[in-house]
Design a protein that fits this description.
The structure is a homodimer of 325-residue chains. By secondary structure, chain A is α/β, with parallel strands linked by helices. Chain A has 13 helices and 7 strands. In chain A, strands 3-2-4-1-5-6-7 form a 7-stranded parallel beta sheet, with helices on both faces.
Chain lengths: 325, 325
């Protein structure tokens, strides 16, 4: 670990100059957490905040990975409204035991971009990072931004609570559903209606697309109230068939329109401030929870517990003694 | 508040001598939390642990209050196997805005015992106590024990998470169901199977009693594995009709048998040690969570937040600065 830490400023400079392997190592340090992650974070933070993040979520099997890959291809085109030459894809996978760093071997579609220097692809699982992915993901995004990535697409594997939180904290959040009875309702139940800025009905060549479209419109009719004082944004519904690259211009346009809306209205700046506040509060809670765990084990705890068992200290006095040391 | 605190040792002595109004005031101090609660707790703890606690829970409408009242009547009889002359009833009601201290006016049955000096009845709601009822209830029990109550019956109004926790921490836990399809299944879903030491089918004069009895036996067949190294206790199923005082001897016998079982096997002592450990850990977590809340507001937080907004501190450095002061 000591050696790694000494290397971090050098790795950081190399990543800033475009060295992909160094960037991968910095992200591994973030995943592992601890002092190395803090050092990487401290270097990245002052020069981050320069990119734009797009979250992509939806139920497993909705085709998010294929859609993300097709969106990357669209963005790599000079004709796209989102034309970009520095894209990162961060795949959030809380359940994966896979130790990150490599390109995702099981994501066949993503391999289309594996040799494209303009695209950096990375999966991220929970490892040692205090506070888990909810706190590791924003740090990873800042490292990617510091390394010059203008666009960071954050894709989740599932719709677990942490994944919804991470994706909901993106600048623009895309929720992917499929045609078929109940898919829109499921998205609603998973808390995706609240975080969606753009809806995608992927696999829109299948039966039931019109019904799902109508269900989503209906739910938007019911829930479409802007936050107090904010101009109203009604999430557009885009139809795609990602595996034939169909409908991606429409998705790029919807993302671009949402970006313009929140930028011009000042919502983007406001939300980013709010996110930093939220992150700071989460870090405080995670740090103190970790401390509570440490206080609840070991020799000092055992000694104090014995005092309580002997009724010489009551549990509140004991807790105070442990906390105040 | 200052005046109240000075009075606490005097109130405590009076409560120990049997003065009911003083006992009620001490319990109010516990409910309110803060320094007064700590003072009461410190006085009670060294002389507590002398009583036996029975938790009574089940879905709203199962007749828990009537059953508790009938059980008290049974225990007040010289012929009962649980014959007792110093009983307390603590009714846990997380949702009640009622400020405690008085006898529960709305609990008609309980009024049967209102003039009986041997029975002390008290409801308890969440007020200011840090950690809520989960941490206030064990403190209240200790005050009741310090005031000489040999038996503390802890009754819950509903089966919310906190109520199940509080009742599950009693020495003997009684789970009340009614005849009728699905009631046993609902009890299972609410997490009551794990905490039950005794089952009561109350309103057993109604149709469906035999079916419910069989459902419970079946669930016990499926789940009846003792903790490692502990002798097996299969929760008996008692049928009662509380509002006609029917079946209460059977309930008293079941409680007595469970008490003998855990006392003789050493389980009682082991579980009480475990409960104090759990309480200590909870207090640590609650104290640190409270501190996290305090750290996340106010002028210092605003100043540090401004440093983060100006990208002069990263969120982790900011959190450390706030925590370490």
């Amino acid at each position: 670990m000591g050696r790694r830490q000494r290397d971090i400023p050098a790795l950081f400079d190399a990543a800033r100059s475009g060295h992909r392997a160094s960037l991968a190592k910095l992200l591994s340090a973030i995943e592992r957490g601890g002092d190395s992650a803090r050092e990487v974070g401290a270097l990245a933070f002052p020069v981050a905040g320069t990119g734009y993040t797009v979250g992509i979520t939806g139920a497993p099997g909705a085709g998010k990975s294929t859609l993300t890959s097709a969106l990357v291809a669209e963005m790599r085109s000079d004709e796209s409204v989102l034309s970009a030459s520095n894209i990162a894809v961060l795949a959030i996978d809380p359940s994966s035991p896979f130790t990150g760093g490599a390109i995702l071997g099981d994501r066949v579609r993503m391999q289309d971009h594996a040799l494209d220097e303009s695209v950096f692809i990375r999966s991220m699982a929970t490892r040692g990072h205090l506070g888990g992915l909810a706190l590791a993901a924003p740090e990873a995004v800042r490292v990617l931004e510091a390394a010059g990535r203008d666009w960071v697409l954050i894709e989740t594997v599932g719709v677990g609570q942490v994944e919804v939180e991470v994706v909901g904290a993106a600048d623009t959040t895309v929720v992917v559903v499929n045609p078929g009875w109940g898919d829109a309702v499921q998205a609603n139940k998973a808390g995706l209606m609240e975080i969606a800025d753009v809806f995608v009905i992927n696999k829109a060549d299948r039966a039931g697309t019109a019904d799902t479209h109508r269900d989503l419109e209906h739910m938007l009719d019911l829930s479409g109230h802007p936050a107090e004082g904010e101009p109203y944004w009604r999430p557009p519904i885009v139809e795609t068939v990602a595996n034939t690259n169909t409908g991606l211009e429409g998705l790029a346009e919807a993302i671009g329109a949402h970006r313009a809306h929140i930028t011009e209205s000042g919502i983007l700046a406001k939300r980013r401030d709010q996110r930093v506040d939220d992150e700071l509060r989460r870090i405080i809670v995670a740090t103190l929870e970790h401390r509570a765990g440490v206080l609840s084990e070991g020799k000092t705890f055992d000694a104090v517990r014995a005092e309580v068992a002997g009724r010489r200290l009551d549990p509140w006095q004991a807790a105070r003694q442990l906390i105040e040391g």
